[in-house]
Amino acid sequence: MQVLSVTPEIFPLIKTGGLADVTGALPIALAGKGVAMRTLVPGYPVVMDAFKKKKAVYQYPLLQGGKASVHAVKVGELDLFVLDAPHLFDRQGGPYGTVTGSDWPDNWRRFAALSQAGGDIAGGAISGYQPDIVHAHDWQSAMTLAYMRYGKAVGVPSLITVHNLAFQGQFGAGIFGELGLPGVAMQLDGVEYYGGVGFLKAGLQAAWAVTTVSPTYAQEIRSPEFGMGLDGLINMRAVDLYGIVNGIDVDIWNPATDKHLVANYSAETLEARGLNRKAVEDRFNLENDDSPIVCVVSRLTWQKGMDILAAVVDGVVQRGARLAVLGSGDAGLEGSLLAAAARHRGRVGVVIGYDEALSHIMQGGSDAIIIPSRFEPCGLTQLYGLRYGCVPVVARTGGLADTIIDANEAALSAGVATGFQFAPNNGGALLHAIRRLVEAHARPATWASVQRQGMKADVSWDKSAEKYVELYRLLLSKRAA
Ligand code: ADP
């Protein structure tokens, strides 16, 4: 089975969030299951630099203006189609914006171009390659499904995975004329959205199936509270809606071999975590004692509930935990967390920035990781936490609810608990969870059992990849019908 994946990010080449981890890991997990996945990705500078021999397999004028070509290359284990369109992607900065963080004003054009390439390839533009299925991700590649539908690939089964419904790619009606789509596409069941053009909306409309990255989030987005204005459409698509939890790369995230750690360990040698814990204390200027270190590795945003945490830092410290925060994002949140660290020297440490190596040490040395997200399509850091014996403390929402088993009395005595859940998501409930955590941490046998239980959980891509294969098969059977 040939599957074309279309994505704006892919680990290890270009990553701003969990989406990249998924698109980077899935092809490798699928390879052993009879599915050959090729990934179409924009030719950002880091992507173009990742391969030497440039040989275009497709050269064409873009419907949105300018010329482009597609290179078929292999980078590591990944089979890529790289969209080379220098006027759109050869820029310093992030995939979506400038170095200072403001969005590129022509993002609609950039990701319409990516999507056109996806639609063209789905329609057989590259000789010798015909995907059986097209798998798009988020708004940046969602229009692939519109280009397929209004172009030559209307019969090719497609799905779109929503990694985060908060990002929808909405633009004014004025861009429509430059998308190169037929006029009939600008209607309610096409790309039109509240009078403008909605990229994600168009994808949700055209996809044969819609997936989210956890079953709970798939249900949540059917409600106005989580649906971000798209709940009506998502309800209409409910029979084609699936939730498949993400896995993680268990080779990269393996405490027994992780090169970033000061000391490697397994469920049998948890005491070796002490050396990593010391590294966390040093890096965050925390006092050295036996109280639990609760860490945060996160974008500092409202979605992640960082304001809820920032408002109760004093309470976290009072309840006997130390806090180590790694993250960047909202300037106001960065400021209030830094202020909390200044107030609680030795008990709270904050590092502002993005630091992959440090994130590993934190999982390997902290006692717990707290994730108070308001909504969480899947979440990866709680899965890393499980694997590293860094006990997750999570808001009961989305993928967090699906992947963590709360350490209530029943779960503890049955030996199945893997973390702590709290609800509703507010400061009081969060502090209550911290209190439960501090109490459990004071009972070493209980704590180690929660750690070990988490480390036993299967968080690999294997199970998830199996579910995608099932869905791909279902779509192929629909095509046959
Ligand atoms: P999202 O994609 O919504 O940001 P996820 O939990 O799905 O949230 O994925 C976040 C990913 O980014 C994880 O791999 C996490 O370790 C990583 N990450 C987030 N913030 C930082 C940071 N400041 N430094 C290093 N890694 C980070």
TrEMBL record:
Entries under PANTHER family matching the protein: ALPHA AMYLASE DOMAIN-CONTAINING PROTEIN, GRANULE-BOUND STARCH SYNTHASE 1, CHLOROPLASTIC/AMYLOPLASTIC
The Glycosyl transferase family domain, residue ranges: 283-444
Record field: catalytic activity: [(1->4)-alpha-D-glucosyl](n) + ADP-alpha-D-glucose = [(1->4)-alpha-D-glucosyl](n+1) + ADP + H(+)
Signal peptide coordinates: none
Transmembrane domains' residue ranges: none
Binding residue positions for ADP-alpha-D-glucose: 15
Starch synthase catalytic domain span: 2-235
Keyword Cell inner membrane: no
InterPro entries referenced in this protein's UniProt entry, alphabetically: Glyco_trans_1, GS/SS, Starch_synth_cat_dom
This protein's name: Glycogen synthase
Pathway entry: Glycan biosynthesis; glycogen biosynthesis
CDD domains: GT5_Glycogen_synthase_DULL1-like
Enzyme Commission number(s) from the entry: 2.4.1.21
Organism the protein comes from: Mesorhizobium album
Keywords in alphabetical order: Glycogen biosynthesis, Glycosyltransferase, Transferase
Keyword check for Transferase: yes
GO molecular function: alpha-1,4-glucan glucosyltransferase (ADP-glucose donor) activity
A Pfam family per the record: Glyco_transf_5
